[in-house]
Amino acid sequence: MHYLLRHLERIPLETPYPTVADRIRSVVSAVSLRAEFDPKVFVDATGLGAPVIDLLRVGSPQLASAVAVIFTSGSKRREHPGQRKLTLGKARVVNRLQALLRTGLLHLPQTAEADALARELMNYEIRVSQNGHVRFGAFKTGIHDDLVTALALAVQ
Fold first, then answer.
1. What are the backbone dihedrals phi and psi of residue 67, each rounded to the nearest 5 degrees, phi first?
2. What is the Cα–Cα distance from 150 to 156, expressed in whole angstroms?
3. Is the distance from CB of 96 to CB of 152 less than 8 angstroms?
4. What is the pLDDT of residue 90?
5. How far apart are CA 19 and CA 11, in angstroms?
6. Residue 134 above 90 pLDDT?
7. 15-28 as b/e, with b when 16 or more CB fall inside 10 Å?
8. 3-state SS string over 93-149?
9. Are 66 and 45 in contact (CB under 8 A)?
10. How far apart are CA 149 and CA 120, in angstroms?
11. Which domain, by its residues, includes 72?
């Protein structure tokens, strides 16, 4: 299966939650009109993402089934039936993105945001502490990994 990324957008840091939810609603609505079906929506609910998922579910009937994704360490993908929740291991996310990119199954647009995504992927790290705890992400000051996270959610 090929994945064609048609839209990529970074919402500025410190954007109020209702504004984020409104932007997501707008994008989903536009996709629904073009595709003639409601897309499945996955939202990073780890940490500060939980209020956004709450706003989406309450404010829009077509987003009532949005899936809250909690990132964990490890490589498991666990669905929570009836809860609209998914637990997803960062190792699984990283491995999946690497495989899709290496095999040419993931196609990105030629945009400034896609270039930013490529830079984020280059800066994405896996760190293992002395006690064996594994962490994934962009750790350098001023570097982000939110587009990588968004892409990981899109290909689930």
1. -95, 125
2. 10
3. yes
4. 81
5. 10
6. no
7. eebeebbbebbeeb
8. HHHHHHHHHHCCCEECCCCHHHHHHHHHHHHCEEEECCCCCEEEECCCCCCCCHHHH
9. no
10. 10
11. 3-154
Tell me which amino acid residue 4 is. L
> What confidence tens digit (pLDDT) does each residue in 20-60 have?
999 999 999 998 888 887 788 999 998 788 899 999 998 78
Query: Between β-strands 77-80 and 85-89, what pairing exists: parallel, antiparallel or unpaired?
Result: antiparallel
On whether the CB atoms of residues 46 and 71 are closer than 8 A, the answer is yes
CA 136 to chain centre: 14
How far apart CA 20 and CA 33 sit, in angstroms, is 20
Proportion of the chain above pLDDT 90, given as a percent: 25
**How many domains, in total, are found in the chain?**
1
Contacts of 73 (CB under 8 A, 6+ apart): 89, 90, 91, 133, 134, 135, 136
Single pTM value for the model: 0.80
Q: Which two tokens stand for residue 36?
A: 């003639």
User: What is the average pLDDT across 100-120?
Assistant: 86
**pLDDT for 97:** 82
Please, are residues 153 and 141 in contact by the beta-carbon 8 Å criterion? no
Residue with structure tokens 């030629």? 110
